[in-house]
Amino acid sequence: MNFLENIFDRLGKAPYLPVLQEARSDAMVTSGCGELLALIRTARAFLTYAGLKKGDRCALLAHNSIRWAALDLAMMAEGIIAVPLYARQAPAELVAMMKDCQTSLVLCGDESLRDAIAGAWPESPPGILLDEVFATEAGQQSDALVPLADSDPVTLIYTSGTSGEAKGAILTVGNLNHMLACTTARLDLLMGSRKEPDRVFHYLPFCFAGSWVLLLTCLSCSSVLALSTDLTRLAEEIRMAKPHYFLNVPTLLERIRAGVERELEKRGGMALKLFQNGIAAWLRSQAGKPQWLDSLRLALANRTVFAAIRKPLGPNLKALICGSAPLAKETQLFFLMLGVPVLQVYGLTETTAICTMDHPGRIEPSRVGPAIPGIEMKLGEDDEILVRGPNIFPGYWNRPQETAKVLRDAWFHTGDQGEVNGAGNWRIIGRLKNLIILNSGHNIAPEPLEEMLLRRLAGAQQVVFIGNGRGYLTALVTGEVAPERVQAELDAMNAQLPHYKQIRAFHLEKEPFTIENGLLTANGKLKRDAILARYQAQIEELYCRKSA
Fold it and tell me: For a 10 Å CB count at each end of the chain, is N or C smaller?
């Protein structure tokens, strides 16, 4: 039984059990397994009516919803290759992807998305609203799934495109068979024996590989997945969902931690004192150097301020899962101190989203866990992480040369630099193509230094270091932060760094880099080439000013 047959078997055996929810105003709208199957039946009828057949590509451009999941499952059931796209991305970028994969149909969540595509691509295939899809009469068509081999593609997920065009990564039935077995096993370790379904909250778009894998994982086992529908109401939605765990990006966890610390600094008084004493006691305990009153300090903090910080995350929370980028060690320790372990995951679209996953009982802060079962990982030239196994994609859509660059002798070259310790736990150091090489010959991975400065600067949104081919490093900083504060923090950092890593000048820009202004990828990563091009004049001024 492949992963898709398993999902449909589970849905068919328990028609009345809840499986998906959507947050709506002050309540959760719930779909049972039988209701989801009915939606899938309707979507399959529409796809048949539209004339789509096995192997055709169909773009899905919509925000997360129960109907999104039904459409995705319907496409896979018909052997149609789903092309999920990010609703916030620029129309020109979306059109480039749809042209690349020669989509037969564009399924849109609302009229604004449909009109944006039509405006950017007048010759586009028909743009159909989800409302129209689910208004179709299901009829009496067979519920049988189109037979799929392990090598058959089920989706094309376009990579971020931090430099150059985005590429469509093909993921197959075999990739998903292996990955979902790994994710369900790891979540079983986290949850242990349970009598009720896992409660999972989800706010990350399904068009990202890790987010989609979580959706399929929850559909494969006894889980209820609650979908966020309004990112401005995340706190209220989490309270309604009362999750056992949910998937995160580091940005949100960093903001939670910074927000808590700022609020306590404002309040001052006993709450701040209890918090500071609790942190100090916990850190000494972790270092094996407790003081004689530390158990009392920690107990007081746990019952008062720590409990108040945990409360918005709900009464059932067992862990947070974090991926897409390395999480700051201090933030991981912050949540661990609150009694909420953060399990890190590392992977790329091309590895079916995951290469490593933290073991719930053996977390090492700042590391992303061991390789998942059944795959191999090793370090190549310049400490590049290489991966081999059944999770590796077969290639990029219609791009044999690009595929050959990253798949060599069955090893996928990730482009990420890493290290692994004796326990087999990996740490991500940086991105190989982001490496800055000064004209002195010194090689510098910018990410750790950028994260260090960003953590020091409350109010800063992003930090980008520049210096390739130059004599020294400079920085672009975005956000609401005073230049004097930036300089003070740079002085403090530079005092601890070797001469070639010191940052000698900076440019402050109030407007942050965003997806809309073309300086972030769809999943929030820096488009470094685009940033350097946009701020070329300011960068040149930094180097002229410093050398004058």
Answer: C
